[in-house]
Write a structure and sequence with these properties.
By secondary structure, the protein is of the alpha+beta class.
Length: 168
């Protein structure tokens, strides 16, 4: 997708229906999340950090989103967050995920986040590759971490340590 066509801006409540739709597409693949349904805006809003929350759009159509969840309520983990990046079906493989993840990394560092982590199904090769290309490294494999449709699944745990924040 040409750079001049893709734009990224903060995600706002009015984006929720299309963001939810993209999330539901990801859920339907069986390779993006353990979730079986998308939450309401209120639940999603309360479980994600207020910023950064991003949407990518092309020609006024939202084609992807990215956001962060805190990994813990404990103060010691205030600079650690879990990444979510979703691209609408039909728009994958065009650099949208990379643009979102790169901006998410940049914006998270501005907000004092020193570690980003992602939990990804190993079968989701595109997502693993995307994260690795943006500086994430595999730090572990979580075997039989959860069941999905009655089957045990495993995830890869990837993390990215900031070179700017948390090195003092």
């Amino acid at each position: 997708m040409p750079e001049d066509v893709l734009q990224i801006r903060p995600l706002v409540a009015g984006d929720w229906e299309v963001v939810r739709s993209i999330y539901l597409d990801g859920i339907a693949t069986g390779q993006a999340t353990f979730e079986a349904e998308a939450p309401t805006w209120e639940i999603w809003n309360n479980t994600h950090l207020p910023a950064p929350r991003l949407v990518a759009f092309s020609r006024a159509i939202v084609v992807g989103w990215a956001a962060l969840c805190p990994v813990s309520a404990r103060a010691v983990y205030a600079g650690v967050a879990e990444v979510s990046v979703y691209v609408a079906s039909g728009h994958q493989g065009q650099g949208i995920g990379r643009a979102l993840l790169e901006m998410l990394v940049n914006e998270s560092e501005k907000r004092g986040i020193w570690t980003l982590q992602a939990s990804i199904f190993p079968e989701n090769v595109a997502s693993v590759s995307l994260h690795q290309s943006c500086g994430f490294r595999e730090v572990g494999r979580r075997e039989r971490i959860g069941k999905m449709k009655g089957l045990w699944r495993e995830t890869l745990l990837l993390e990215r340590r900031s070179k700017l924040i948390g090195n003092d």
